[in-house]
Amino acid sequence: MVASVSDRAMGAEVVMLDADAVRRWIRASADQISANRDFLTQLDAAIGDADHGVNMDRGFSAAVVDLEATPGSTPGDMLERVGTTLVYRVGGAAGPLFGSMYRAVGATVGSVEWVDGERLLEALRAGLDAVQSLGAAVVGDKTLVDAYEPALAALERDLRAGGTLATATRRAAEAAREGVRSTIPLQARKGRASYLGARSVGHQDPGATSTGLLFSALAMVVDQDP
User: Fold this and answer.
1) Are 95 and 89 within 8 A, CB to CB?
2) What is the CATH number of the domain that holds 159?
3) Where are the beta strands (DSSP E) in 44-144?
4) Closest Cα partner for 209 from 185, 186, 178?
């Protein structure tokens, strides 16, 4: 669940995520990926190997099965398990990238039972660092970073402005979607799509699109909780 707990020192309500919310985030992510599997594959067919949607769907489906079989885990443990599953079950470059991202997020969350906005921000930042350490991509390279980095920036801006976890994740999802659209006019400079040169222009990046779906799933889970 997502809960509001009283911070006695500050006299305020701090909204936090628990293991159940994380489990539902992964399940919602899997649902989003599954619903868009063919679209993701079509995007990848234009500038990649035409397997991104199928691979991501297989990986997230396996992650959901694994989490359902391991009740009682902490949020950090669950996210690390998701990352390990994706590394082994998602093919191509997406497996190591998304898998390392979730592993880093989980490791940064650590052993706590509840995750507040600041810890979530720190963990997602570690996830981006892991992605960039592997792929060396920056905004403008036509990769998942084009959706992830603006989402992270929007999350931080909203939290710093006094926003709630619900408003911050909603802003992050909106920024991710804008980042996805921004990849269309770009020429790819990383990955398989970079081999196409100027022919990659005019196509939406599948990795960025998947990233947008993951942030949308997070916002949906937070917003729907009491």
Assistant:
1) yes
2) 1.25.40.340
3) 115-116
4) 178
Q: Which residues contact 213 (CB under 8 A, 6 or more apart)?
A: 29, 32, 33, 36
Residue 108 CA to residue 182 CA, distance in Å, equals 29
Contact 204, 43 (CB under 8 A): yes
User: Would you call 112 helix, strand, or coil by DSSP?
Assistant: coil
- Per DSSP, what are the bridge partners of residue 12? 7
Mean pLDDT by 10 residues, the chain (226 residues): 42 72 97 98 94 96 94 92 96 93 98 95 98 96 98 98 96 98 96 92 98 98 76
Residue 134: which H helix or E strand, with range?
helix 117-135
Distance in angstroms (rounded) separating the CA atoms of residues 161 and 152? 14
Give the phi and the psi of residue 189 in degrees, each rounded to 5.
-120, 0
Count of domains for the chain: 1
Domain encompassing residue 141: 2-224
Identify the pLDDT of residue 225. Answer: 55
7 - beta bridge partners? 12
- Looking up tokens 């916002």 gives 219
Q: Is 15 helix (H, G, I), strand (E, B) or coil?
A: strand
pLDDT of residue 10: 38
Query: Which residues sit opposite 5 in a β-bridge?
Result: 14
Partner residues linked to 13 by β-bridges: 6
* 106, two tokens: 């989980």
Please report the pLDDT score of residue 14 as a whole number.
56
CA 21 vs CA 111, 160, 174: distances in Å: 15, 23, 20
